[in-house]
Amino acid sequence: MSLKLLLLDDDLIFAQTLKRQFERKGYTVELAHSSLDVIRLAESFNPLVVIFDLNLGIESSLPAIAPVRSYCPESIILILTGYGSIATCVNAIKAGADDYLTKPLSFAALFEQVEKLVEQKSKSAAENQLAEFETDFSPMSASQLEWEYIQSVLNSNQGNVSATARQLNMHRRTLQRKLNKKAPC
């Protein structure tokens, strides 16, 4: 995922300032000024990080978290608010937010938290890939390995059991008994 950030804030000056600062750090930033804008942009922009201002004038951005999460399930959603409370924090986390920060907050602290969340996300993605690889990869048992080898030699001899037995230095009846058994799992 590229370093794309979507910022929802109704304070245009604050939003522009944050945009410039994140762009200096290498992020591509899109701004949204309403809940509808952030949902629309989330679908088309597919950001790595979404920062929500909780209070947008007279409306709350809390209802927009779930739709954004559905469009961007892998994105990091961060709530930034000047009106923090335990109740809104709990509601934001339940709606799908990954973190909740209160203003006033320096850009350095915000950027540090964003980078920490991005690092955790990439680390957990790498661990998940490794876990998938480890569960998918299991070495063959000796009987599985023997079965596969016999099948490859038999295939190279176009199914001729006698020629395969000679090539494997095995009695033909022994080979036939092995072939009549079910393939080992």
Reading the helices and strands in chain order gives: EHEHEEEHEHEHHHH
Number of contiguous helices: 8
> How would a crystallographer describe the biggest sheet?
5 strands, parallel
CATH superfamily of the largest domain: Response regulator
Spatial order of the strands in the main sheet? 2-1-3-6-7
Task: Count the domains.
Answer: 2
The whole-angstrom Rg is 29 Å
SSE arrangement:
Layout lengths: L3 E5 L3 H13 L3 E5 L2 H11 L3 E5 L1 E2 L2 E2 L1 H10 L4 E6 L4 H10 L3 E4 L4 H30 L5 H15 L4 H8 L3 H9 L5
Parallel strand pairs: 1-2, 1-3, 3-6, 6-7
Antiparallel strand pairs: 4-5
Helix pairs in contact: 2-3, 3-4, 6-7, 7-8
Q: What attributes characterize this protein structure?
A:
185 residues, alpha/beta, Rossmann fold, Arc Repressor Mutant, subunit A, 2 domains
Overview of this structure, please?
The protein is of the alpha/beta class and 185 residues long. The chain folds into two domains: 4-136, Response regulator (Rossmann fold); 142-180, Orthogonal Bundle (Arc Repressor Mutant, subunit A), CATH 1.10.10.60. Helix content is 57%, strand content 16%. It is built from eight helices and seven strands. The protein has a five-stranded parallel sheet with strand order 2-1-3-6-7, sandwiched between helices. Strand 4 (55-56) and strand 5 form a beta hairpin. The protein is rod-shaped and about 85 Å long. 22% of the residues are buried. The model has no long low-confidence stretch (mean pLDDT 83).
